[in-house]
Amino acid sequence: MNWLEFPDATQQTDALANSVASRLAAAIESRGRAVLAVSGGKSPIPLFKLLSEMAIDWARVTVTLVDERFVPPGHADSNAGLVREHLLKNRAAPARFVPLVRAGADIDAEVTAANREFAAPDVAILGMGEDGHTASLFPGAPELAAGLDPANPTPILAVTPQTAPHRRVTLSYAALLQAGSLILAIQGAGKRAVLEAASSGPDDARPISHLLAQDKVPLDVYWSA
Questions:
Q1: What is the DSSP letter of 204?
Q2: Measured torsion, CA atoms of residues 44, 47, 53, 55, in degrees rounded to the nearest 10
Q3: Helical pair 45-52 and 79-86, crossing angle rounded to 10 deg
Q4: For 42-60, how does the pLDDT look when each residue is reduced to its tens digit (9 = 90+)?
Q5: Class of the CATH domain delimited by 2-224
Q6: How far is CA 37 from CA 8, 46, 106, 119, 178, in A?
């Protein structure tokens, strides 16, 4: 784990956007295309807005999600809606978008379709909850063992959180281990304390701990007060 600390969210977001742009450019130069997986919720909106203005060869970038709530595309809680509204515009408008949920009617069919389209991300940007969940790998979820199985051959699965609304569709831990690089963006003393507690070793009670303990994929943590 590589820890990067910033005095405020603005400087954190600026540094994160520049790092993502550099990594995407490197992937495009190396193999002609790049895949960026982003997290939803309100926290990434400033990053999305900044990235949308950056001079990246967006026509060669595929954008997808780390996880998604199982809701119709027009629902207020749709992560895809946030990506379309705040990222896929301005210079980023030419990017190809691959949502994890297309209709929100049949979760098994959606997961099957998402697995067919899965491409390992060059960069995956993660968040973390106060309970130590990342992506939609929630502690206590019935599907957590499968989600955290590093040998799981299925990169995307359905999850039923016990402490959050909506069923979810999420990249598994095994899928995240296929990424070129992982970035965890968090803010505040509370989440820093959660992360520090999770750093003691893999613990299903804090799913983020599995990513902190692995040494297969570089993980950068961007933290601000």
A1: T
A2: -120
A3: 40
A4: 999 999 999 999 999 999 9
A5: alpha beta
A6: 24, 16, 23, 10, 12
